[in-house]
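Is this the right way to post structure tokens for a design question? Let me know if I should format differently. Anyway, here goes:
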């Protein structure tokens, strides 16, 4: 259909719920000596016409590390360097909400009902959970996850961990999501056997639309033997 011109080293994409907008991160200006992005932005595109419709500049003090739509009207962005997650009004490009107390945003997930915002922090084995509507921190899970995915019904959250050196496996936990974060519990643990697991890592996760299959990306530290495993989890209660 179209090829959209990326501005800088953009790596994140997100469609709005209706599919009318596509958001991509961009870098409008870099420090000439350090090559660090000093003017990050988000570009909003019309995916059907292949044209830029809006540009939100200076969204953070450094590269955007993740982005997602709350609705066609609200866009969420996060950055590792300034320790914030921010919510933007799409029509005006105005900042409408901050989420504070995030130490290095690597990745975040928003629950399907738009209630919970769950954040992975760089180098910190704590998963923080916020209330989306109020921006209030609800609690934490003391887990060293590297990938996250909510089930389509929002009742479960999958998180991938690092290798178990003794068992030669990679570990993944599926948590049962409740209204109170203190009541979240592990519904299932998947121990994924991998030869020489110490050199392998779990990456991105994704539930199928019916929630019965979990796709798990596995990569090798040497850049070889990358694979995707599909696990049946349809019997989760």
């Amino acid at each position: 259909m179209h090829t959209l011109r990326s501005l800088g080293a953009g790596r994140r994409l997100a469609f709005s719920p209706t599919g009318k907008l596509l958001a991509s991160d961009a870098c409008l200006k870099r420090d000439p000596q350090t090559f660090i992005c000093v003017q990050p932005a988000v570009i909003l595109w019309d995916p059907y016409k292949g044209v830029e419709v809006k540009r939100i500049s200076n969204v953070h003090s450094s590269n955007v590390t993740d982005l997602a739509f709350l609705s066609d009207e609200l866009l969420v962005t996060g950055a590792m360097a300034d320790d914030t997650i921010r919510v933007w009004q799409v029509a005006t490009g105005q900042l409408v909400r901050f989420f504070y107390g995030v130490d290095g945003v690597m990745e975040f997930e928003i629950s399907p009902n738009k209630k919970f915002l769950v954040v992975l922090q760089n180098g910190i084995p704590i998963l923080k959970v916020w209330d989306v509507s109020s921006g209030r921190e609800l609690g934490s899970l003391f887990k060293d996850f590297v990938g996250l995915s909510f089930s389509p019904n929002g009742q479960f959250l999958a998180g991938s961990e690092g290798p178990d050196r003794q068992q030669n496996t990679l570990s993944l936990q599926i948590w049962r999501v409740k209204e109170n974060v203190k009541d979240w519990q592990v519904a299932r643990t998947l121990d994924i056997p991998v030869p020489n697991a110490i050199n392998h890592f779990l990456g991105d996760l994704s539930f199928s639309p019916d929630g019965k299959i979990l796709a798990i990306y596995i990569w090798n530290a040497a850049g070889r033997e990358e694979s995707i495993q599909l696990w049946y989890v349809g019997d989760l209660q």
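Format looks fine. Someone answered above. Worth noting: The first strand starts at residue 13 and ends at 15. The mean pLDDT is 84.
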